[in-house]
Amino acid sequence: MLLQHLVVLAIVQTAWSQVGTEERIVVQLEDLVNVNDTSLWRWRSNAGNDKTVRFYYPGGFVKLTLCVEPDDPFLDVTVRFGGLRYSNDGQADSVSAYMDAHGIGSGRDLKAHSWQGKLWNMFLDSGWIDNSYTLTPGKHEFRIDVRTDEAVGGGLELDSAVFYVDNLRNATEFICGTDIHHYMVE
Ligand SMILES: [Ca+2]
Ligand SMILES: [Ca+2]
After folding, report:
1. Could you write out the DSSP letters of every residue in 66-91?
2. Could you tell me the distance, in angstroms and rounded to a whole number, from the CA of residue 21 to the centre of ligand 2?
C-alpha cells in the first residue's frame, strides 16, 4: 500500500452564518486537495462549490487544525461538529470523527441507496452526535477517518464539513491548517 501524502497550503474556503451568538461554519473539503490532481476530486453540480473529495478503497483521512481565540476572553469557546455532507453509491462506507484524538460518538456508516453510479450527485447530511466541546485558546486538531469497503470502484464522496461555534473571535481564521491523505493500493 502506498501512502500518498498531500499537504495543500491553499487557503480553505469557508462560509459562515450567525444565529444568536452561535456561528455555522462550512468547510468545503475539496479545497484541501490539489486541484491539479483530478483523481482526488469530482465535479458535482449539486455539491457545495460544485466539487467533492473522492475517497476510493481503502479510504483516507482529513485533518483540520482549528485555531481558537475567544471573542469574550471571560467566556469559553464551544465547538460542535455538525456532520458531513456526502454522496455515496455502491456499498455503505464508514467514517469516524475525532476532536483532539477523542472520538466523537462512534463511527458512522454513510449508507448508499442505489448502485450503478446514479447517486453521486445526490447529497445527504450525515448528522452527528451532538457533543459540544469547550476548547481552550490555541490550536486543536479535528480529524475525519474514512474507510471504504469496496476493492473495485465505489468509494465515498465528501462535499463539506459543518461546525457550530460559539464565542469565536474570527470565523475566517477558524480553519488554520489542513492535511489530507488518500490511501491507495498499487
Ligand atoms: Ca460506496
Ligand atoms: Ca464541496
Report:
1. EEE-BSSTTS-EEEEEEEEEEEE-SS
2. 26
Q: Are 95 and 110 in contact (CB under 8 A)?
A: yes
Q: How far is the CA of 153 from the centre of ligand 1 (A)?
A: 8
Which ligand number lies closest to the CA of residue 14? 2
Residues 136-151: pLDDT tens digits?
999 999 999 999 877 7
Global pTM reads 0.86
In this model, does residue 168 exceed pLDDT 70?
yes
Q: Which of 34-48, 73-87, 94-108, 170-184 has the lowest mean pLDDT?
A: 94-108
Q: What are the cell numbers at 81?
A: 461538529
- Give 65 Cα–ligand 2 centroid separation in angstroms: 18
Query: What is the 54 CA–ligand 1 centroid distance (Å)?
Result: 10
Which one is predicted more confidently, 184 or 108? 184
User: Which ligand number lies closest to the CA of residue 161?
Assistant: 2
Structural domains in the chain, CATH included, are 2-184 (2.60.120.260)
